[in-house]
Amino acid sequence: MTQRVLVTTSYLKPGGEVDQLLSEAGFETVFTTPAQREADGTPLSDLVRDVDGIVAGTDAFTADVIQAATRLKVFGRCGVGYDNIDLDAATRHGVAVTYTPGANRRSVAEHVLALMLNCARLIPQNIASVRAGRWEQRSGRELDGAVLGLIGLGSIGKTVARLALALGMRVVAHDPYLDEDFLAETGVEGRTFDEVLAEADFLSLHIFLDDSTRHLIDAAALRKVKPGSFLINTARGEVVDEEALADALENGALAGAALDVLAEEPLPLDSRLRGFDNVVFTAHIGAATEQARSRSSLMAARQVVDALRGRTPGNLVNPEHLALERR
Prior knowledge:
The structure is a single chain. By secondary structure, this protein is of the alpha/beta class. It folds into two domains: 4-102 and 289-323, Rossmann fold (3-Layer(aba) Sandwich), CATH 3.40.50.720; 105-281, NAD(P)-binding Rossmann-like Domain (Rossmann fold, 3-Layer(aba) Sandwich). It contains 13 helices and twelve strands. The chain has helices spanning 17-24, 34-40, 44-47, 63-68, 87-92, 105-120, 123-131, 155-166, 180-186, 193-199, 219-222, 242-250, 290-308; strands spanning 4-7, 28-31, 53-56, 74-77, 96-98, 147-151, 170-174, 189-190, 202-205, 229-233, 254-259, 279-281. The longest helix is centred in the C-terminal third of the chain and has 19 residues, at 290-308. The radius of gyration is 21 Å and the shape is globular. The model has no long low-confidence stretch (mean pLDDT 96).
């Protein structure tokens, strides 16, 4: 029986490089997107019933969906986060979960830089002013000499740090597992969490979402930030308490924020954050470059191929799945 791979990543299409890779490896491929499923009313649980592997996008693979996927052996998640997959359920059913760290680090890092520049030079406000027929030369600030605070110094955080250093910024960082060699090589300064909050002119988040990081940036944290600073979030929306962020913007504790990720996407029409002209929004596009998408999707597909061929895939999140039989 030919093994089948379901591709749910919305930007991947039949005939593309991932389809070719999987077809050449001998797999039948099936493509679906959230928009297609919404249009025809097909639930994701129906589509997973007869597939052996999934190249996964941002769809919610809940315990119920995984329970329905009785043949499933592996998820290849396109991206650095895999919180949309119920990891406990996957492990319990003997399903491998892989992801693609590093594939999008340059794209996300460049987007962080773009967001910082937008905040620093008030670019969205200036664009809106000119479009409205005004000609207000509002002054911003230079990045040279400013302090960038990083919460998380993994592959993306390190790339952001190098770009910031090249612009003359001073970089301070907090991470439970600081790479001392990287600090010594670059001059990035290790700090406690509270010290980063207090020192940063621009605070950029580069952390996974789990129980320990959900609402890490809450009201208490925002009371500790440097007055006049900006918050940049390209990690996961849920690491920020958005109500507390709205309060901080309202009372002037922050000069502004730039958010590529939100707790609910798309941003609800009634969100308080929509009311602030000093908040920049982008639609979760940090990794949305042709180069990053190609690297990430091909890496995920190769990991699916390896798992279905009986090899241990790279970037395996849950090796303990091997000890558990599919139930």
